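Example record used in the benchmark description.
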Amino acid sequence: MNHSNGEGHRLALLVRFLEESLNALSVAMLVTYFVLVLLQIFFRFVVNESLYWAEELIRGLMIWGVMIASVLVGRARGHIRVEALELMVGPNVRRYVYQLCDLLSIVFCVLLAVASVQLMSRVWHQMSPLLEIPKWTVYMALCVGPVLESIIIVLTWGQTAEAVLKPGDSL
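Model output (structure tokens):
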């Protein structure tokens, strides 16, 4: 994408804000379900009681965590792909291969988001058995993740993993 300096800088700031926010959210969810698992162990084996609601909450947080983390993996261009084609072509053609990968990722994300909206509409009036929250709030992660990933791919169109990763980062 060709952008003027100011617009390109604003896009870079937006991408950085999204990336840092999603990183913080992922860490918060990971810490939350780690603490909940430890509490479950403590309550079961020390107090001899069960936190009956914790497993359902952990499951929901894990679904949200995976979908949010997939956005970060998409940002780093780290999803599984066949790299043989990238290695067989020159740098000029490789740029088009990256754009094709981005386009295919967006198509997949859109299909997943549409399917998740259909799933949410089927469970709209159902409540989770223990937490008594609407089931669609968990399944909404299957829509939010792909939509955010599509947005971040569009904002960073055609970038390679090397261009995205900072020194010292790894996937």
